[in-house]
Amino acid sequence: xxVEVDPLLVPILGAEDASEVSIQNTLxxxxxxxxxxxxxxxxxxxxxxxxxxxxxxxxxxxxSQAKLHGFDPKDALIPLAxxxxxxxxxxxxxxxKIQEEKDSIAIVFFAGVxxxxxxxxxxxxxxxxxxxxxxxxxxxxxxxxxxxxxxxHDWGVDFAILCTYxxxxxGPGNIGAIFVHKKHANDNRFRLAGWWGNNAETRFQMxxxxxxxxxxxxxxxxxxxxxxxxxxKASLEIYKKAGGMEVLRERSLSLTNYLxxxxxxxxxxxxxxxxxxPKRSGFTIITPSNPQERGSQLSLLFLPMGxxxxxxxxxxxxxxxxxxxxxxxxxxRLAPSALYNTHADCLKALQCLEMxxxxxxxx
Length: 363
Description:
The protein is α/β, with parallel strands linked by helices. It contains eleven helices and eleven strands. The protein has helices at 2-13, 27-38, 56-68, 73-76, 91-100, 123-132, 152-155, 226-241, 245-264, 309-319, 343-362; strands at residues 21-23, 47-51, 77-80, 105-111, 136-140, 159-163, 176-180, 282-285, 298-303, 325-327, 331-334. The strands form two sheets. The protein has a seven-stranded mixed beta sheet with strand order 1-7-6-5-4-2-3, with helices on both faces. The longest helix has 20 residues, at 245-264. The protein is globular, with a radius of gyration of 21 Å. 43% of the residues are buried. The model has no long low-confidence stretch (mean pLDDT 96).
């Protein structure tokens, strides 16, 4: 059943064909699976460059991989933070750090879209820069797949991991997937071998020797749940029926740009440059203003921080039927879905948000 579902993910990830895609495991297990295959540190080249505010599961995984290979995470990990007075990373700073640490970096590993700020990193540029200094480049696509158009094969990405229960709508905690570039299809690198990754033609011969399926499927370990795959297949078929990521991206831009314009015209909007010392309650937007640097997510930081503004707004939005998502400290993520949200939904979200802030100020 999984071989029927893998091809549906190909256009969403920008893979060349289904041999580069494998639906398996869950996100953090896939992180460990890929790092055991691609993280080959030496005495000189052993460091991992990543974003300082990565999702905790990624940070825990990177720490444990460094320790597994005998390194102190404080030495082996390079966490890159935004400049003082800024919320997002500049591409020029990422590229500069890659050059600065070029002889020591083994893996460059970032999220495609940052979970807290909603920043979509310039994946092609960063991948190219990583390869130019001899590093492996991998991506966490948890908030990226099904959100923005990807061209992982053309960009030369070595590997990527993803879950399918966010923008791909397969259900809470459902199965994840990996991308492995075709250039690694038959390089016989180490992997956590399992029966489901063995050559399907000889699998039921129950041989003692593992014969991996060429490509990403050779990294499968166990037979995935058919129920999980059925949920994912139904969602991916909707993406195909809707016209694919290019069509959905066009609609997503229309929705998110409209919502961004509504939010920035609100009397409660506080420009980013004023947000570090706010003189009133309200919100700023920490997601990049450039539409090409974001997906459908807009992250609203409520101010002053630590004063309960975010929680009050979040509770009010839920009461009014506006379903967003909160992330500490003080951020609500609003992400109009191209599959089913409308411009009227965006307007309602803005009206309910302003109503919530009005009531907070009256309290």
